[in-house]
Design goal:
The protein is an alpha+beta fold and 399 residues long. The chain has 6 helices and 22 strands.
């Protein structure tokens, strides 16, 4: 019988064709980014559903109570390919840092006859997922398998195959709809590996590479610790103890634009599955006025070249450290403007409004556009999130 560690190493090697490095019980998975959206509206609707999910105390059961965000694409995604049970279908599962539940069957049907139906109904509101928990074999392309709980969707209007959950285990609280199991949660892939001693610590780390024109961009997912993809010391901040954000990767930070305060020290979320950087509506208005951005028909702030040249640094005060987004990091990659209904030379900002002011719900979401500039560590063991600068933190690849 192969170990879980060997199995996952062989999995990634077979998916990517690249060698998988395993260092002292680290599982390092090379990832390739997928652009899964057809237009900017798809991204914004997906992100809006994520925002709503962070502030709901529980998921809903039944179609009448579902969140009204029919989704087909999610924007920027990293996927892992698996087979389930004896199904002939290969599922490409999106890595999701704000859910601990692994889902299949959201697009391609679940056809396995080897799964054990636990009878536990499950629902998550951010992608209208409704299904049932099964225990089945996740099989990788080399034929090796491992049994773990998965959610099999009976309803989920998505344009992708499912989700690989790496969020905190408590993010699945209330997702199970059995009234006798309200306090029951579902371990993430990270938790599962840790419980079975495949990795030393309940930690998963993410490295994204910003868009470079003409280059296939890769990322890296490391279970069990960190891989030296960063250029300075990792600094950690605790996950907030205040619900509901305590169930996600919720942290405290303040944000300034130049010397102007946008958001005082308060709580928000780190989420790799949200594409943009979201801030409270009053902070967004101050940012818009200060940058001179004008709302384009695509919903993004647009600036001229002169306004771009005048952009000041966005500073994120997290713990005792300051993390900076330069002008380039504040704009959408112009090589991808066609995907947000823009022209080649347009300049769009990646800061969006949460549509609620500071003091109402959460004040920010540090999404993919933030995380691609910093090595990020999600530490379940110590309930903390870590950041470190990389060679791409100050890169000028978007303009």
């Amino acid at each position: 019988m192969f170990s879980v560690l060997s199995l996952l190493a062989l999995l990634v090697s077979s998916i990517t064709g690249l060698p998988v490095e395993v260092h002292n019980s680290l599982i390092t998975l090379p990832m390739t980014r997928r652009l899964t959206f057809s237009n900017v509206t798809d991204i914004l609707r997906h992100d809006e559903a994520r925002m709503a999910a962070f502030t709901r105390e529980y998921s809903t059961l039944g179609p009448r109570a579902r969140v009204d965000f029919p989704l087909s694409n999610i924007g920027v995604a990293y996927t892992v390919a698996v087979n389930v049970g004896n199904s002939p279908i290969t599922y490409n599962l999106i890595v999701d840092s704000s859910s601990s539940i692994t889902w299949v069957g959201t697009r391609n049907p679940y056809l396995s006859s080897t799964g054990i139906n636990t009878g536990e109904p499950v629902a998550v509101n951010y992608f209208q997922g409704i299904g049932t928990i099964f225990k089945d074999l996740l099989t990788f392309t080399n034929g090796l398998s491992i049994e773990m709980p998965i959610a099999v969707a009976t309803s989920a209007p998505l344009g992708f195959d499912g989700v690989l959950g790496i969020g905190p285990q408590m993010s699945s609280l209330y997702a199970l709809q059995n009234q006798n199991l309200q306090e029951h949660t579902i371990p993430s892939v990270t938790d599962y590996l840790h419980m079975h001693n495949a990795i030393r610590r309940g930690v998963v780390s993410i490295f994204f590479q910003p868009v470079v024109r003409g280059v296939v961009n890769h990322g890296q997912l490391t279970f069990g610790g960190t891989d030296p993809m960063y250029s300075d010391k990792l600094k950690y901040t605790p996950v907030t103890p205040i619900p509901p954000l305590s169930r996600y990767w919720g942290i405290n930070q303040s944000i300034t634009y130049g010397n102007m305060e946008l958001i005082p020290y308060t709580t928000g979320v780190v989420d790799c599955s949200c594409t943009f950087l979201y801030i409270a509506s009053d902070a967004y208005e101050r940012y818009k006025d200060a940058t001179g951005g004008i709302v384009n028909a695509n919903g993004l702030l647009q600036v001229t070249i002169a306004k771009y040249d005048a952009l000041r640094v966005l500073k994120f005060y997290i713990g005792l450290e300051i993390y900076r987004l330069n002008s380039d990091a504040q704009i959408w990659p112009r090589s991808l403007n066609y995907m947000v209904n823009g022209y080649e030379h347009d300049i769009f900002l990646v800061v969006k409004s949460l549509n609620t002011p500071i003091g109402v719900e959460h004040a920010f979401i540090n999404g993919y556009v933030f995380l691609q500039r910093f090595y990020t560590v999600f530490d379940s063991d110590r309930s903390q999130v870590g950041f470190a600068r990389t060679e791409f933190t100050a890169a000028t690849t978007n303009f």
